Amino acid sequence: MNRQKPRLRDNKDRFIIFPVKHNDIWDAYKAIEANFWTSDKIDINKDLEDWKNLSEEERLLLHKVIGLIHHSEHKLNGKITRKLNKNIKLPEAKSFLDLQIVMENTHTEAYGVFLNSFLNSTEQEQVFKEIEGFPATTARENWIKKWANSSSFAEKLVALAASKSIFSYSSFAALFWIKNCGLMPGLSYTYEVIYRDKALHRDFATHLFNDHLLEDISDKKVQQIIDEALAIEKDVIFNFLPLDLIGLTKKALNEYLDYESNRLFTDLMVNRNLNEKESNKEKLLQQRAQKLSKTTSTDKDLNKISKNTD
C-alpha cells in the first residue's frame, strides 16, 4: 500500500457535516458525545468525611496522585490533541477532536476541585514544587514537545495514543485502590469517567492510524515513541509514588505497564507478522496483568466503536 499522505483531508467545498461521509469516525464522535459529563456532577461531601479518616501517609499519597494527574492534564495532554486538530480537515474527525479538547479541560477542572477541597494553598504549592522538581516531569514535557511538534502526522497519532495509554497509569492504579476500598465516591466517580474518556481517545487515535492514514512510518519508530513514554511512567512508579503503601507492588505494576505498552504496539503495528517469541511474550504479560486488574465494563464494553451507523 502506498502510504504517502494522510486521508484526513476533505473537499474544501464541503461546508456542512451531512451527509456523513465517514460513518466509522462519526460513530466514534457520537460515542464520546453520549458520555459527555461536567464537573458539577461530582459530589464531594462524602469524600470530605473519608479524607479525615485516611492515615497521614495515605493522604500524602493522594496529594501526589491528584497533583500529578492535574499537572499532566493541565500542562501536557491537550498539546498533542491541538496539534493534531490543526492538521485535520475531515469534519467528522474535527468534531471528535474538538470535543476531546473540551473533555480534557473538564478533566483538569475536576481534579482542580479535589485539590482545592483537600489541600490548602500552601500544601498545593508544596505538591507542585515537588512535581516540578521531579526529573520525570521534565522528561514528560520534553517527550510531549518532541512528538507534538513532529512533522510526521503519523508520529503525532502514535504519541496521542501512547499518552492516553501509558501516562498516569500509576496514578490511576492508586485511584482504583480507593474505589475498591469503597472510599471517596466522588473521586472514584471522577476516576471512572476520566479513565473511560482516555480509553475512547486512545481507541480513536488508533482507529485513525489504522484505517484513515496513508503515511510511511516504521514499527521501529512506533516502538520508540511508546518505549520513551513507558520509561518515563516507570520512573514515576519507582521513584515518586509510594504505591507499596496501598499494597501495589512496583513489580506488578511494572509488568502491567509492559502489557499495556505491548498491547498498544500490537494495535499500531504496520507489519502484522509477529514472531513466536513476541507472541509468547504477549500471552505471558496478559496473564500477569489479569492478576493485577480485572477487565471492567468501562474498559471493555463502553469503548467499542460501532461500524453500523446508517
UniProtKB/TrEMBL annotation:
It comes from Salegentibacter holothuriorum. GO terms for molecular function: ribonucleoside-diphosphate reductase activity, thioredoxin disulfide as acceptor. It comes from the Bacteria. Residues 287-296 have a biased composition (Polar residues). Residues 297-310 have a biased composition (Basic and acidic residues). GO terms for biological process: deoxyribonucleotide biosynthetic process. Its EC number is 1.17.4.1. Coiled coil: none annotated. Its cofactor is Fe cation. It holds the Pfam family Ribonuc_red_sm. SUPFAM superfamilies: Ferritin-like. Belongs to the ribonucleoside diphosphate reductase small chain family. Residues 279-310 are annotated as: Disordered. This is ribonucleoside-diphosphate reductase.
